[in-house]
Amino acid sequence: MFDYLIVGAGFAGSVMAERLATVANKKVLIIDKRDHIGGNTYDYYNHDGILVHKYGPHIFHTNSKEVFDYLGQFTQWRPYEHRVLGSVDGQLVPIPINLDTINKLYGMNLCSDEVEAFLASKAVKLGQIRTSEDVVLSKVGKELYEKFFRSYTRKQWGIDPSELDASVTARIPTRTNRDNRYFTDTYQAMPLHGYTEMFRKMLSHPNIKIMLNADYKEITSMVAYKELIFTGPIDSYFDYCYGKLPYRSIDFKFETYDQEQFQPTGTVNYPNEHPYTRITEFKYLTGQKHSKTSVVYEYPTEHGDPYYPIPRPENAEIYKKYQLLAATQAKVHFTGRLGTYRYYNMDQVVAQSLTLFKKLIAEHSPEIHLNGHRKTTSITS
Questions:
Q1: In 3D, which of 51, 49, 13 has the Cα closest to residue 34?
Q2: UDP-galactopyranose mutase C-terminal domain location, by residue (predicted)?
Q3: Which of 43, 85, 202, 295 could form a disulfide with 194 if both were Cys (CB 3.0 to 4.6 A apart)?
Q4: Is the Cβ–Cβ distance between 255 and 72 less than 8 Å?
C-alpha cells in the first residue's frame, strides 16, 4: 500500500514525491510513461559526449528564494544569464528589444531617454488591451510588431497574435537601456551537472519507488494507494469528456558540428523567413568544454507531445469545466502545467507543487509543522 501514487516524474510530480517522502514520511510510487525521469527537462550526453536537452532548452530563472534554495538541495548551481539575438533585416539584434536593438536596426545613436520617446512615438494608442497583438502594438508600434512578433507568434502558436490571450506577449519586456539579458530574475543559474542528475538526487529516497514506461490507467488497477497526484493532461484523466484541450508541440532537430562554436550566443530567434523559430547551442547553457558543439532547431507543430497550453478564451472555458469536475474527485490532486492547463515556467511549477504539498500536510498531517519535519527539519533545508 502506497500513501500516494504520483503520475508524472517531471518537476510537478518529483517535487511532490520528494516532499511527501522526506517531510511527511509517506510511501510514494511515482510513475511516468516515458523511459526516464525529469519530464521535459531531461538531459543526456549524446554520441559525441555533449550534454543536450532532449525536449529543447530549459533555462532556470526565478525570483523565489524558496524555490531556488529548495532545488539547491539537489544540485550545485552554475551561474548563467541567458542572452538571445534575433535575425531581423539581415542583422542579429538583441531580444528583448532594447536600446542597442533600436540603434542597430535604424542606424541611430539614441540614448535611453531618446529611445523611450522613439518607442512612444511608434506605439499605437489602444483603448483596451485584449490580445497579444494589442500588447505589442501598444508598446512598440506596427513596424517592430511585424519585424519581431507577428510571424514568430504565428509559427510558435499556429494562430495570429490577434487571436491569442494578452498574457503570451506580456511576458516579453521592452527595454530602453542596454540590458541584453533575456531574463532579469534575481536567481539565474543552471544545475551544474544537469537536470537529470538533479532529479536523480531529488528522487533518491527510500520512501520513493519509481516505475517508468508505465501507463497510469494500467497501474491504478494493479497498485494499492490512498491518494493520487496527477500531473498529466487533465482532459486525458477525464477521458476528454468535455473535448480535448489544445496544445502546441515542437519537432526538435539536433545537429552536431565539428567546431567549438556555432553561433554568437545561447539562442538565436528567427521570427520571419525560416520554418524554425530558434536555434539553441547547448554549450552556452551547460558551460561544457568540447571540441565539437551541438545545437537544436525548433519547429513548432500541432502534433506531438503536449508542451504549451494555448491561452485563448474558448480554451479557458473548456478547462474550467474540467477544473470543476476535478474538484469533485476525492483524494485526487492536479498540479503542473498539464494538470492545471497553465503556461508556467519551471520555477512556477515547483512553487505550485510546494504549495499543494503544504495544503495536503495542513489537511492530513497537522502534527507536521510546515517550518519543520516533525518540528525539527526546515521544509526547504
A1: 13
A2: 147-343
A3: 43
A4: no
pLDDT of 29-38, one tens digit each? 999 999 999 9
pTM assigned to the model: 0.93
User: Would you say 59 and 82 are in contact if contact means Cβ atoms under 8 Å apart?
Assistant: yes
| β-strand partners of 191 | 77
Angle between helices 99-106 and 112-122 (to 10 degrees): 70
- List, in order, residues 6 or more apart from 12 with CB less than 8 Å away: 39, 231, 335, 336, 337, 339, 349, 352, 353
Cα 35 to chain centroid distance, Å, stands at 20
Q: Report whether 206 contacts 52 (CB < 8 A).
A: no
Instruction: Tell me if 82 sits within 8 A of 285, measured CB to CB.
Output: yes
Helix (H), strand (E) at residue 52: strand 51-53
Q: Is residue 265 part of a domain?
A: no
| Most distant pair of Cα atoms in the chain: their distance | 69
Say if residue 237 is in the same domain as residue 347. yes
Same domain, 76 and 102: no
3-state SS assignment for residue 294: strand
Cell numbers linked to 284? 552556452
Cell of 143: 513596424
pLDDT digits (tens, 9 = 90+) for 198-243: 999 999 999 999 999 999 999 888 999 999 999 999 999 999 999 9
Span 281-318, pLDDT tens digits = 999 999 999 999 999 999 999 999 999 999 899 999 99
Whether 18 is covered by a domain: the verdict is yes
Q: Is the domain of 342 the same as that of 199? A: yes
Q: Please report how many Cα atoms fall inside a 13 Å half-sphere around the Cα of residue 83, on the Cβ side.
A: 13
Report whether 305 contacts 32 (CB < 8 A). Answer: no
- 354 and 215 in one domain? yes
Domain total for the chain?
A: 2
My answer on whether 320 and 238 are in the same domain is yes
Residue 122 exposure: Cα atoms within 13 Å on the Cβ side:
17
DSSP track, 264-280:
SSSEEE--SSSSSSEEE
For residue 317, what are the contacts with CB-CB under 8 A and spacing of at least 6? none
Q: What domain range includes position 150?
A: 98-170
Give me the percent of the chain exceeding a pLDDT of 90: 89
The domain that holds 354 is classified in CATH as 3.40.50.720
